[in-house]
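ENTRY TYPE: protein
CONTENTS: sequence, structure tokens:
***
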Amino acid sequence: MIKKLAGLLLLLPVLAISSVAIASDQQSAAELRKLLDQTTTLKGEFVQTLFDGQGKVQEESSGDFVLKRPGKFYWNTRQPYEQLLVSDQESIWLYDPDLEQVTVRSAQDDLQQTPALLLSEDVNTLREHFAITQQAVDASREEFLLTPTRKDGLFQTLTLVFTGEAKARKLSEFHILDNLGQLTRFVFQKSVANETVSDSIFQFTPPDGVDVLYD
């Protein structure tokens, strides 16, 4: 059961240049902010793949997600095991139906430990916690490497990938390199940006009979 929680635990203690180029931190943050500001909400499906240090696939999961800036997300893993991760910008809930258990923690001071929350955060907040480097790949794809300023988190780097036309790019995948040298790749599919999303989806009420743990 510990293994099946590994992907979501990463999210817990976890939004056009033709040649490759690297910009300064300030320039990178400005470009990242421009891209994030194009998207207020994003929802769709995801595939999550964990690779070991040699690049061998260890496990894969899939489900659906909703992001709403700033600070709200709904991350519902359906296969191979059901798990739900929800944040309303104040609290983070991790629900495991098989364990009949909910873990609750504050989202306020958890930025470096919560990659999923990073995707919905304000760029100025990100700059307080990360060095941001833009790595533009081609005219339809841009990547940003975020490196934590603290060294006691669960991951070494976070890479955000945006694809599409320059004026309509949206987040299409992100990669997390953890401190064990493992890479987790999240790919978004059938995603739709800027649709109206009710805040009710980012609220979670534990079902009757489950254990509620406060971290």
